[in-house]
Amino acid sequence: MHSNKIFFNVEEGEQGLKLREYLRKNKKFSGRLIKGAALDGRIEVNDNRTKLNYILKLHDIVSIDLAKEETQNVEPEKMDIDIVYEDEDVLVANKRPGMVVHPTKSYQSGTLANGLLYHFREEGESCIVRLVSRLDMDTSGLVIVGKNQFAHMCLARDMKSEDFEKSYIAIVHGNMENKRGTIDLPIYRPENVMGIKRIIDDRGQKSITHYNVLESMKGGDIVKLTLETGRTHQIRVHLSSIGYPIYGDSLYCEYDDSKYINRQALHAYRLKFPHPRTGKVVELETDLPDDMKRLIDKIS
User: Fold this and answer.
1) Domains in the chain: how many in total?
2) Where is the signal peptide (predicted)?
3) Is 40 a catalytic residue?
4) Which of 40, 87, 89, 136 is flagged as catalytic?
């Protein structure tokens, strides 16, 4: 049975703090989570409902019930989803290419969020879909979801830590001159351009991508990329800007690659993150999808 409660033991040096201050500063809880849980009576000290100005004593046991009734404006839909990892706090799915992550005006159904909500209901869980990471519709691979407010808060916060790593595999045109390196170029969304295209521009946000060529072939390179920042289209913009566009990228590649692949050859293959509840580092990897394997065969 999943436990919806999280427990903390007040340690030496923490006694004398107000409960609110302890949760905020020592446990890095957001003010919103603390306030909501307190209003619902979901915070207890030594099994008793407690006010936030309670002064903590050594070895007090603080517990927070993470379960709460929540609704989301997403229709649950039965679909085949590749779930790579799941526990009471976190779910990681391997998204197939061509699937939108979350409903939009253009895509009201058939999204990953629709399928995950159905999965949660089937399992008798009342959680909503809290996306920690997102992928473009035509990028495949690992997407991480927090199953409660606490997990989402921790994962979003830890994305900037060294223990959190998102790595991708791309197949690019051309053989890269430097087999490993870092692309540090600011990415900007121009106001006068229709749609979602981004450009390299000094007015943009700092964007850093580390790359490493895994294999060079006749028709291009297989490249591993790790993001230090997470801008929209970051890998696609960065690779095309240095002259190695991704195969099949209709937005940033000028070649017609339709005989090779019908989407950008980009896959979020590896994820590493500290678990919200235990702090232990979780590492997950997925295989390349079939269309990218076929592309490699064609250009080898």
Assistant:
1) 3
2) none
3) no
4) 136
